[in-house]
Specification:
Structural class: alpha/beta
Radius of gyration: 31 Å
Number of domains: 3
CATH topology of the largest domain: D-Maltodextrin-Binding Protein, domain 2
Distance between the termini: 71 Å
CATH class of the largest domain: Alpha Beta
Order of helices and strands: HHEEHEHHEHEEEHEHEHEH
CATH architecture of the largest domain: 3-Layer(aba) Sandwich
Number of helices: 10
CATH superfamily of the largest domain: Periplasmic binding protein-like II
Strand content: 25-35%
Shape: rod-shaped
Amino acid sequence: KVAELSSFTEAARTFGISQPALSQSLSQLEQRLGVVLFEQDGRRRRLTEAGRMAADFAAEVLGRTGELETWIRSQQHGDAGRLRIGLTDAATLYLLPDALMIFRETHPGVEMQLVVDSTSALCDLLARYELDLVFAVGPPPEGLIGEALGTEELRVYARRSDGTADPSAAGVEWALPPAGSRTRALIEAGLADRGIEAVVTLTSQNPDVLRQVAAVGLAWTVLPEAVGGNDPELVDVLGEAVAHRPLAMMRRESAPEDARVAALSRLARDMVRLTGAATLAR
């Protein structure tokens, strides 16, 4: 700006400082850079070659500073940046697709990164600052906070032609979520309460895979009612839930407010309320 004006006096007036203060600041800058930035031209001061280089660089920095301020404002309003989301397969398959699609359409400047894994793995990633928001089986572990989305009924399903068999009978094979998962623990406890000891011959985190295995008669399984109840090839063997699985949104307790997280959380709540996908207790 100094280079654009006719004199240091005019520049100082523009900046609202004294001319000596401006001259001292420029002198200190020259000493720091080890070059002369201005040369005298009558009553005017002209930039030297080094001065022009410094002025061009300063203009670029100021321009990028403006870009940074614009990006920060967009980020604060939830319109820019990156949102890293963790999902269990259940959430991915039938609970959140609409919410994710609407978020992408209404926040085109936000880069969404999706990670699908087990609840324990997702909670670990969230605690290690590698995710911003997780949709998984509650309750959240220490250090994370959660908001309940609803409770799923988990029911025993078999191929319709096999549904009259006794689930506790010998020879019944089961396809269930992997051992060690929260869902597997809930299922095993519910089956044990009914005197059923499941012989597990296949495991998968994906409820749609378990549904297909049961539909072709390879094994019995336990599924959310929203998955198994909509398949005409399957029958609800017991006619009641063997377990109830809580679903929750989770984030770090220490995480600052984030407009992107807040926006997706609102959409998830709205979708659950409108579709009833997470109440699932009929």
